Every structure is written in structure tokens, then in C-alpha cells.
């Protein structure tokens, strides 16, 4: 079969700060077909491209992002281990301005700060209408339900945790695709459950060393990885 789409997880984070423009540009150079990135909200509802709600790991500042306004966030720098002084947290709007002309496929993971924030979510979803290839993923089913309320045609992807009941997928109209950890879920019982429910699956934590890359289960429609070049090399026929 032909190669499945490869999404770079937060860009290529081995060579640039995660969720940064440099990481995304590097991903495209390393054969990624699309980009996976995370979005959180500030106190004043500015969408920021970052994984953590607490910014200490990335910036050294013990800030809860949803408790601090954007005018403080925009002054922070990240990525000291890469010696890229002055790298700042991207806003979703800044990244979108770069994505739209190129129409790069994207997987937008909405984090916990979007729970219960319908207006901010609606704003982001409407902006996604300017992209041709986009799906929204989340660990939080309520967020995905709201996405479907705003735009029923937009593809949603649920990220299951250990306690999730896969038999419930058949009644889950708010879930189009599953984004699953390959270490836990690349097993027949989960793949078959997805297939029976009519759902497709993308797997994350892919390293490029998996023996099923060239012949994946028929429910699989893509890979999410920190190593797009390796996955590309080892998945082509």
C-alpha cells in the first residue's frame, strides 16, 4: 500500500524548541506530510501554541497560562537548550498566517484550558475554515462535542486514556478518528473495536522502528512521530 501521512509531533523537537516555527520548518524538511501541535488559552483567551498549562518547563516562569494575560506571555522566551535566544511562544494566529499560504495539513490538539470555553473554541474552529486539511484532537470529549456543535463537518480525533471503553465508540458521534498511543493500543482487540465502530485510527509515539509501518492494519490512516524522517524511510515500499 502507499505510505500513510506522517504528522510531526510538535514539529521536530530534537532540533528546535517544541511547537516553535523552527521545529515546524524542520519537520517539513524531514519529510513530514503534516504538523501536530497543541493549543492552550491565556487568561484573556488568546490561543497559544504550547503543550503545558504551566509554563515553568519551557520558560522557567511558574505561570499557569490560563491565569496570566497575553501581554505577560508574549515577553517570555523558550528553548534555552537550543541556544535560540529570543524564541517566543507562538500564538495560533501567527502560526495560522504561516500555514494558510502553504495549506500544510495540521492536527490541532486542544488542551484542558479549552474545557467550558465555548466562545474561544468557536473562534478557533471558525479560523480553521481557512485551512483545507485540518482535524482537531483532544483528550477531552466535551471539547470534541462542542467542536461538532460549531462545525459538524470538521474531523475530530479523540485521544483515549487507559480507562476508556472502546465498545462505546459505536455510539460516539462526536468522534471521527482515534489518536492512540501505539505502546498500549496497537493490538488486535482495539483495532477491531475501532473497525467495528467505523472509526479510523492514527497512532502516536511512533519511532520508525515498528514492523507494521509498511503493512498497517486497515483502520490506520496516519502516524504521529517525533522522527518524521525515520518513519518516512522505514514506511515507504
UniProtKB/TrEMBL annotation:
Residues 4-235 form the GP-PDE domain. InterPro entries: GP_PDE_dom, PLC-like_Pdiesterase_TIM-brl. It holds the Pfam family GDPD. Coiled coil: none annotated. This is Glycerophosphodiester phosphodiesterase. It comes from Kurthia populi.
Amino acid at each position: 500500500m502507499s505510505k500513510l501521512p506522517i504528522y510531526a509531533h510538535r514539529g521536530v523537537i530534537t532540533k528546535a524548541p517544541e511547537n516553535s516555527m523552527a521545529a515546524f520548518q524542520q519537520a517539513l524538511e524531514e519529510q513530514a506530510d503534516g504538523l501536530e501541535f497543541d493549543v492552550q488559552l491565556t487568561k484573556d483567551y488568546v490561543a497559544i501554541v504550547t503543550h503545558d498549562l504551566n509554563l515553568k518547563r519551557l520558560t522557567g516562569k511558574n505561570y499557569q497560562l490560563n491565569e496570566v494575560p497575553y501581554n505577560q506571555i508574549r515577553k517570555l522566551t523558550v528553548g534555552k537548550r537550543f541556544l535560540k535566544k529570543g524564541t517566543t511562544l507562538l500564538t495560533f494566529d501567527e502560526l495560522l498566517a504561516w500555514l494558510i499560504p502553504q495549506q500544510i495539513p495540521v492536527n490541532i490538539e486542544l488542551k484542558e484550558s479549552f474545557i467550558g470555553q465555548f466562545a474561544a473554541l468557536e473562534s478557533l474552529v471558525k479560523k480553521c475554515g481557512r485551512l483545507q486539511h485540518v482535524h482537531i484532537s483532544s483528550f477531552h470529549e466535551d471539547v470534541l462535542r462542542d467542536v461538532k456543535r460549531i462545525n459538524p463537518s470538521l474531523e475530530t480525533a479523540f485521544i483515549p486514556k487507559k480507562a476508556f471503553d472502546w465498545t462505546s465508540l459505536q455510539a460516539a458521534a462526536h468522534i471521527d478518528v482515534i489518536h492512540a498511543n501505539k505502546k498500549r493500543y496497537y493490538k488486535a482487540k482495539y483495532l477491531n473495536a475501532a473497525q467495528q465502530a467505523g472509526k479510523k485510527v492514527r497512532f502516536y509515539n511512533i519511532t520508525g522502528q515498528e514492523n507494521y509501518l509498511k503493512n498497517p492494519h486497515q483502520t490506520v490512516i496516519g502516524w504521529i512521530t517525533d522522527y518524521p524522517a525515520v518513519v518516512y524511510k522505514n514506511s515507504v515500499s
